[in-house]
Amino acid sequence: MMAIDFQIPAARFGDGHSPFLSARLVADRLGITLAELAKLIRVARNTLTAKSGIRKVDSALSKVVRILAMASEMAGDEARAVIWFKHQPIPGWAGKTAYDLVGEGKADKVLAYLEAIRAGVYA
Fold first, then answer.
1. Residues 68-113: tens digit of each pLDDT
2. In the chain, count of helices (H) and strands (E)?
3. I want to staple 20 with a disulfide (CB 3.0 to 4.6 A). Which of 3, 11, 34, 58 is the partner?
């Protein structure tokens, strides 16, 4: 089976002046506050804006950005991807959404689910 190459446009989640992802842009795209984003990615609120924590935040945000980018490609646009991320239960996870699973530290499970869907497996 041929794998489809999805280009993940992570650049749209950066601020343009830094090679790192912008917590503010990710929070804005998700329609949540920075405090909610910090809780979602399991970092302290102050770490989101501290220069010393930029690599930790970038690492934590990268999984969320990958999920949103993959979901955007599959859903057709970013707005639908955000709605899916926050509100659509993922089959097999007792009614939990991608947002819920990421908040539990299971972003890898969401990515695996999206990869399976992309490969043609319906979960």
1. 999 999 999 999 999 999 999 999 999 999 999 999 999 999 999 9
2. 6, 0
3. 58
